[in-house]
């Protein structure tokens, strides 16, 4: 075990069962751009901290080389993304969400302060609160990464945002999505959106609102729930089942309708060129059947 391996192991042991995420204020997220390396702590759930997997000293050395070269040309062109994405944590400092190897490289070259980007990811408490705030027994789930976000050069994107919003929000939404979400909201559905991306919930909420999609049911950094305690996972699953009788899942080329009380599920095809029109037509058909069944 190297000296650095021991340092990581000690950090994990120190914080693993004695820390939890905190919400950073808007002011803190806007103003805190650099911090001391000592204020950053490795994430126990990241492969970087698992002895059987990482860290990769090859990757660390490559970053060190790039950073040393950048220091002389002053352009920082070698490291594509200098910022380390972090989350505020108790009892102190910030937990690294993305950028462990860059953090290690910064420490190796003796950097006094390192650039960070603070985000407020969704946690289990947030989901419990969202479920408590819900007023409906129907929901739709949409995966932002698979369905909503598109490249700016794609033809099937919504009209871009105007200045100054386009300088802040770089993501582009699938064409027709606002219309589908508006239809679902009018039919009394909670709109749940998920992303594995390391975004603050507030960021996604404001982005969607600019496209007239108004929802508080936002889950960011969704992969963190893969490591959630089994008991907590079970509790969340039971709450979702108790709360929602109807769930609609919208995928890239399909819409899945599930009615728990009737033990019924139906899958509908969505054509790429007319997906939003197809979805709205299917939703109207489902709505008519629900009304008829009352």
Brief write-up:
The protein is an alpha/beta fold and 294 residues long.
Secondary-structure map:
Blueprint: H1 3-15, E1 20-21, H2 26-31, E2 34-36, E3 40-41, H3 57-73, E4 84-90, E5 94-98, H4 100-108, E6 113-118, H5 124-133, E7 138-143, H6 144-148, E8 149-150, H7 165-168, E9 172-173, H8 177-186, E10 190-194, H9 201-210, E11 218-219, H10 230-243, E12 246-250, E13 254-259, E14 264-269, H11 275-293
Parallel strand pairs: 3-5, 4-6, 7-10, 7-12, 10-11
Antiparallel strand pairs: 1-4, 2-6, 4-5, 8-9, 12-13, 13-14
In angstroms, what separates the terminal alpha carbons? 67 Å
Largest sheet: 6 strands, mixed
Question: How many discrete structural domains?
Answer: 2
Please tally the helical runs, counting DSSP H or I stretches of 4 or more residues.
Answer: 11
The assigned structural class equals: alpha/beta
Q: Runs with pLDDT <50, length 5+?
A: none
Calculate Rg over CA atoms. 22 Å
Mean pLDDT across every amino acid position:
89
Q: What would you note in describing this structure?
A:
The protein is of the alpha/beta class. It folds into two domains: 3-118, Conserved hypothetical protein from pyrococcus furiosus pfu- 392566-001, ParB domain; 124-293, Rossmann fold (3-Layer(aba) Sandwich), CATH 3.40.50. The protein has eleven helices and 14 strands. Strands 1, 2, 3, 4, 5 and 6 form a six-stranded mixed β-sheet that branches. The longest helix has 19 residues, at 275-293. The radius of gyration is 22 Å and the shape is globular. The N and C termini lie far apart (67 Å).
């Amino acid at each position: 075990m190297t000296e650095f391996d021991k340092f990581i192991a000690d950090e994990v042991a120190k914080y693993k069962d004695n820390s939890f995420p905190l919400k950073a204020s808007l002011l803190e997220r806007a103003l805190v751009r650099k911090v001391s390396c000592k204020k950053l702590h490795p994430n126990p759930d990241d492969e970087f901290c698992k002895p059987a997997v990482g860290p990769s000293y090859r990757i660390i050395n490559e970053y060190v080389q790039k950073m040393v070269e950048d220091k002389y040309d002053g352009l920082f062109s070698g490291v594509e993304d200098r910022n380390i994405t972090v989350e505020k944590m108790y009892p102190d400092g910030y937990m690294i969400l993305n950028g462990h190897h860059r953090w290690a490289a910064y420490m190796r070259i003796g950097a006094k302060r390192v650039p960070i980007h603070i985000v407020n990811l969704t946690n289990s408490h947030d989901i419990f609160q969202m479920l408590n705030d819900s007023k409906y027994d129907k929901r739709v789930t949409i995966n932002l990464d698979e369905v909503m976000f598109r490249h700016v050069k794609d033809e099937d994107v919504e009209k871009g945002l105007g200045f100054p919003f386009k300088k802040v929000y770089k993501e582009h939404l699938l064409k027709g999505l606002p219309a589908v979400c508006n239809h679902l909201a009018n039919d009394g559905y909670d709109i749940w959106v998920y992303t594995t991306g390391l975004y603050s919930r507030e960021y996604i909420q404001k982005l969607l609102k600019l496209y007239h999609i108004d929802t508080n049911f936002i889950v960011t950094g969704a992969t963190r729930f893969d490591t959630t305690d089994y008991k907590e996972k079970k509790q969340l699953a039971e709450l979702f089942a108790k709360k929602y009788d109807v769930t609609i899942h919208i995928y890239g080329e399909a819409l899945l309708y599930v009615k728990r009380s009737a033990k019924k599920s139906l899958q509908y095809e969505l054509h790429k060129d007319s997906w939003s029109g197809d979805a709205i037509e299917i939703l109207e058909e489902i709505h008519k059947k629900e009304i008829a069944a009352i």
